[in-house]
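Look over this record as teaching material.
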Amino acid sequence: MDSKDIIRPESAQDLAEVVSAAAAAGTPIEVRGGGSKRHIGRPGRSARIVDIGGLSGIVDYEPSELVLTVRPGTPLAQVEQLLAAHGQMLAFEPWDHGCLDGTAGAATIGGVIAAGVSGSRRVSAGGARDHLLGFSAVSGRGEPFKAGGKVVKNVTGYDVSKLMAGSWGQLAVFTELSVKVLPRPRAATSVALRGLPVGSAVEAMARGLGSTASPAAAAHVPGRDGRGSTVLRVEGFAESVAARVDQLRTRLAPFGALDVLEPGDADSLWQSACTAASLPRADCLWRVHLAPGRAADLANKLERAEATWLLDWGGALAWASAAATVDMHAIAAQAGGHALLVRASADIRAAIRARTAESRAVAALAARVRRAFDPAAILDPERFA
């Protein structure tokens, strides 16, 4: 698309007018921040691009309150830099999809929340949806509205914040977000079991995560030498971390001896678990969400299909790198999971459904929700068609 055809609102009022006009004309629009996830979904969509990079900047941040209010086009890297300067973090450990196609640094906080992006700490800290306290947005009607607030409390009524996180901008467009932040851990130690078959690795992760050692993350990364690493990360105060690592040694003794990883090696491994950086590149890169107890079954099916894989979230998330001929939706469904195509050529994305089809009942419910927010179906309706 010619850059002259891209609409760039500079304020929430501008955005409301753009969406309202699109709704009146029945013109589909695709909202982008940094564009780090632009290759997820069908290519060649007819939607006009609305670039909200101009809706950027920190609105309010008081570190003692553990709440950050920010506009959606603010780069994720800027948010993380600000929080790090005050010893704080986004606990759901978001990451930048731009690293998958060489455009690292493009991710925005609005895109991260809209896509529900969470890293390895998701298994202990919750996902993006659990940290979005409130927001302002423009619905598909072009109507500004607000939900939630800037404090952590119980409320009555619908929790619309959780509905918006992971909606991919198909319900409404953020104009402001308030997110919960937490102190960064004082210390972190990653420990690894080596050479476990996938069934034992999944069992070890479950046993570790279910223990009083309370690991923050657990992943299994197969090695090219056949000696995969089953890794758990313990965070907190140094004395507490040391004591809980000792608890893990006892708890996981039936699976072998624990190696303590050097910080640099640990960082590389967790980066790989978040972004599949260690997987050989193939036609398609997929993410599969499933019940952790089914992870070994999924891994075995992937190996029979000659796909490479790794597990994160204690087995609840699998990355798979596979040929275009591999029917990942069928494999995921057989393991009770759902697949999302994260990286592939435009030709492949045009021929393969981007994500596993929902059941008829879930699809009908989702359609009703979308109609309530976007009755004219203008908010990127073709993305996952």
Q: What stands out?
A: The radius of gyration is 21 Å. Residues 186 and 237 are 5 Å apart (CA to CA). The chain has a mean pLDDT of 94.
